[in-house]
Design a protein that fits this description.
Length: 389
């Protein structure tokens, strides 16, 4: 990596670029769409029809969709020298000229970090490389509109690392964003804040407001405040006095902080932050303008083991399972929950890192531990087909 290039410099030059985050936000806009999510979603027939029998890679997909393996742990990615990392987890796509880059975390102790795959305009693998080293249990994270990847450590003293998907700038740790068991984050450029989830049974939902947007080196960390039993209604935010958690965990520093049972994936678009909690198998939505909290999904089937979440240009949410029957389920704007893809033969794994290419034509995700159930067997897939817009 070239140490003379800084992420702060990239922010200033790249903030106005068109990115996958900005495109998704535009697609998700509209009050009627949010109103459709005011009631919890129910099982039904998905827009793509039933899943067909699994293909040779174990992917059960709807008619018209095909899948391929783009990377396997320990093996070279395409013709690149980089060998794909252990336990691939959270991921995101970034526009790269006419092509794109898919970034993926590595959820293992001490080694951790993240890698990336560069694709050409035709979807061919052009390169693969490491973008973060020496961090601990990098689980999920979030993409920024200025084309950086926020990689989160899922350990008690975990931090957020801002990284360069293109492998040029050196990664930078962002301690002002809090020291806790980080899971995922999502950028709300409309309000110039970043939402963050915490993966513990009584974790908080946080928001970070940079002192100077979009520089994440300093700012104010807040936690959502509301009754423990609240599922629908108004919430507020209160500043966390010590984000470094020197004497007390961040989630305990504010009286009345709203607890969430195992925060997981987090995604923002069109005025709404969606996030998942695995302990009670729920998908939540926070209406940032109205200052309210609500439930998008609260059931046992077909979506079980909620984890990473992303969105499509159509307004569909795609939620990956850590458990259940290893599916990615979609939740439509009209409140239908249905399986989109199932990974057969990966019973001791979890589905991670769902992300769409910038044009919305390809969905990437990983089976973290593959068919063996070990972090040495991770597999990263690409699905192409007639995704609706």
């Amino acid at each position: 990596m070239a140490d003379h290039v800084t992420l702060q410099g990239m922010e200033r030059r790249g903030f106005l670029r068109v990115s996958v985050v900005g495109a998704a936000a535009a697609a998700f806009g509209g009050a009627s769409w949010l109103e459709a999510f005011s009631a919890t979603a129910d099982p039904g027939d998905g827009p793509y029809g039933p899943l067909l029998p699994a293909d040779g890679n174990g992917l059960a997909l709807p008619q018209g969709f095909t899948g391929r393996v783009v990377a396997r742990t320990g093996e070279r990615v395409g013709d690149a020298a980089y060998r794909w990392h252990l336990a691939p987890d959270g991921g995101a796509c970034f526009a790269d000229g006419a092509g794109w880059v898919y970034v993926s975390n590595s959820e293992v102790p001490l080694l951790g970090g993240a890698g990336a795959i560069r694709f050409g305009p035709d979807g061919s693998v052009v390169d693969a490389y490491r973008i973060l080293d020496g961090t601990d249990v990098n689980c999920a994270g979030g993409a920024t509109p200025w084309q950086t990847w926020l990689s989160c450590e899922e350990v008690d003293r975990g931090e957020v690392y801002e990284t360069d998907p293109f492998g040029v700038a050196a990664p930078v740790v962002r301690p002002a964003m809090g020291v806790f068991k980080h899971e995922a984050c999502a950028v709300d450029a409309d309000r110039q804040v970043v939402y963050l989830t915490e993966d513990v049974p009584d974790g908080g939902l946080y928001r970070f407001t940079p002192a100077t947007w979009p520089d994440l080196s300093a700012g104010r960390l807040e936690i959502m405040v509301g009754p423990p039993e609240l599922t629908e209604g108004p919430v507020t935010w209160a500043e966390v006095p010590d984000p470094a958690a020197g004497d007390e965990a961040t989630r305990y520093q504010v009286d009345g902080a709203k607890p969430f049972d195992g925060g997981e994936g987090c995604y923002y678009a069109g005025g709404t932050c969606w996030f998942t909690t695995k302990g009670d198998n729920r998908v939540w939505h926070h209406d940032a303008a109205a200052g309210t909290l609500g439930l998008t999904y609260a059931a046992d089937a077909p979506l079980s083991g909620v984890d990473n979440v992303t969105g499509a240009a159509s307004g569909d949410l795609f939620v990956a399972e850590d458990g259940g029957n290893l599916e990615i389920c979609l939740i439509t704007p009209d409140g239908v929950v249905a399986p989109f893809v199932r990974v057969d033969g990966h019973d001791d794994s979890e589905i991670t890192g769902p992300a769409f290419s910038p044009d919305g034509a390809r969905l990437y995700f990983s089976s973290q531990r593959g068919t063996s159930g070990l972090p040495t067997s991770g597999m990263t897939f690409e699905v192409t087909g007639p995704f609706r817009s």
